[in-house]
């Protein structure tokens, strides 16, 4: 199978230059991507594609460029995770509960990327209502990992990561509630960033855990993440969790790019040691017995590369890392049980065909519309919020959440500039391997959950390969964690690493 035309150029900047020089058109890019999506249907990365809508957007981008009115992403083909509502393309959150739902409006993230000129290729598969770590919880079947189709792509944004890894889209939107951008990016060998909570609007993003959910992009390169994240960010008065300011700066487009450009200029001025003076904290809790040997080796090699680039390693401790799992799996299900209570079969969503009264209609509609993992989390959340258990579980989990955030602040304000470690304790596991053991699945997020509890930003970039039983190559991801509003610097550091390595340039094996 021939790869889409956009893979022949060096990221978004290269594509933009080719479009400006009329070497290629947005319509040609879009059609090429649509052809590739159809050819790789076995990956199950896309839930809804509408060629007519996509090509109309592409032709509009070409017209805007011809008129000298092109936005920074004009003609760039991307796709959206199916938890962002979209006009034209169906929005189901990969659930039977919302099968066939058509939104009358676009999510703010979709709206802003569209205003920048991006062309939508379709909606991407994910774990149902973003609940999962493997993308096996979708009502429409699992996404397959392009590196090894017997493996999971990670979740919940598995469709986003798989589409980018397979070259079907230049970039994709995703969401991260407990690692759902960083973990699938790591398992699929691409790059992804979870920004600081509140910097990207949640308006029009179907809610899972409202105090944890945050949107962000997935792409191959850190520089492409800058191109996508910068227009996504900004205050939104329609979102009660949106921040007006990021420290001393307004929360607005241009903030991330300016910080990235400033950091990059400083790094380049240091010559062969672009990371000189950077203290990278290595949390001992991220390198315990649960870390697989092949992942450890790849991370150790990446850390050696950081030192070669001038960074200084600092041993630190995040002592409450293990507590982040029970705290998260109390808080997130509690918020989910509240958010998903709106799906009652009355206003929208699935309604059971047979029922005797209102209570039975609601009960049957939810039983039929929600998958098992969603039901498990709703029941857990309802339990911990019930009378007599709120103080014992939910309130205690919120106290642990504060302690987890304090651990990060102690490290980042006094001991190191950024924190570096693995994203996942293992490479991608086989399809079906953990479906009967939800606790084992939850443990796969041990290095990512704490950032969501604290609201901090984190980047995942590819840094090597571990062992898989089929072809022996499954990607390993490196996580770089910064303090609040540090997205630009994090992406600058990631870019320095990617300038010195080629892991982000590796592609999955071609299809037969």
TrEMBL record:
Keyword Disulfide bond set for record: no
Pfam families, A to Z: Amidase
Catalytic activity: L-glutamyl-tRNA(Gln) + L-glutamine + ATP + H2O = L-glutaminyl-tRNA(Gln) + L-glutamate + ADP + phosphate + H(+)
A GO MF label: glutaminyl-tRNA synthase (glutamine-hydrolyzing) activity
Active-site residue list: 81 (charge relay system), 156 (charge relay system), 180 (acyl-ester intermediate)
GO biological process: one example: translation
Enzyme Commission identifier(s): 6.3.5.7
Domain Amidase, residue spans: 29-491
GO CC field: glutamyl-tRNA(Gln) amidotransferase complex
Keywords, comma-separated and alphabetical: ATP-binding, Ligase, Nucleotide-binding, Protein biosynthesis, Transferase
InterPro entries, per the entry: Amidase, Amidase_CS, Amidase_dom, AS_sf, GatA
Role summary: Allows the formation of correctly charged Gln-tRNA(Gln) through the transamidation of misacylated Glu-tRNA(Gln) in organisms which lack glutaminyl-tRNA synthetase. The reaction takes place in the presence of glutamine and ATP through an activated gamma-phospho-Glu-tRNA(Gln).
NCBIfam families from the UniProt entry: gatA
Family: Belongs to the amidase family. GatA subfamily.
Binding partners and assembly: Heterotrimer of A, B and C subunits.
Entry protein name: Glutamyl-tRNA(Gln) amidotransferase subunit A
Organism from which the protein derives: Pigmentiphaga humi
Gene: gatA_4
